[in-house]
Structure prediction request, 262 residues.
Amino acid sequence: MNKFDVYNYLLKIPQGMVSTYSNIAKYYNSKAYQAVGQMLHANNDSNIPCYKIVNKDGNLSKNYKFGGPLAQKARLLNDGITFIDNRVDLNKHLFTLILETDRLYLRLFNDLDIKVLEEMMNDKVMYYYEHHFTKEDILEWYLRQKERYLTGYGLLACCLKETDEVIGQIGLTKQQIPGKEVIELGYIFSDKFWGCGYATEAGKALIKKAFNNGINEVYSIIKYNNYKSQNVAIRNNMEKVGEFVKVYKGINMPHFIYRVTK
Prediction:
């Protein structure tokens, strides 16, 4: 990790979001978050948005180079950032980049994405779950991802680089199949973006990341009549290796098991 890596990360942070010193270090597989601070404090280019970096508790740095914490807060407020007790509300505004592809980037969800999920998880998109997702269902879904993040797993916000728009959710989770627990690649995309190859593009990147992190096999568990998702699995070099009946909300749902190995 060098200063150009750090500056490049800053330039990726969308309007209305902030990140932290530790998030930047973690993205580059480093624990040297203090070095990130040193690089930012040495920066003399006001076009590099150093003001978008805060401490992990949401507090502002006392060493913001271009006017101190008051100037930093003014710039953040101008970006639409909200504060609680003089700290950035990280539940709403934290940007945590996980990985990138040619057209996409994946990040952790935050509270501002709940409304996006409500629009995305409509009856057409969630058809194969065989029930309507209420706002309460979607909030429960979102909170489950937040819990999963604590273990290093969970569905991620999939965003278009060109617009920063959240177009879907995709990620690795732990799931149970007959006989064992597996790492599953799951994905749900807004119907406006079906047929664009985004699920395959992001899926391949996540599988590669999993293999690089010591995971030797990745699964996708897909309902028997969800042909679009099955085609994505096949394009991700997965093969069908089994099937079973999954019980969801009291409904028996036959599922196929797809797998790709390292």
Observations:
- The longest helix spans residues 135-149.
- The two ends are 27 Å apart (CA to CA).
- The chain is about 35% helix and 30% strand.
- The longest strand covers residues 166-177.
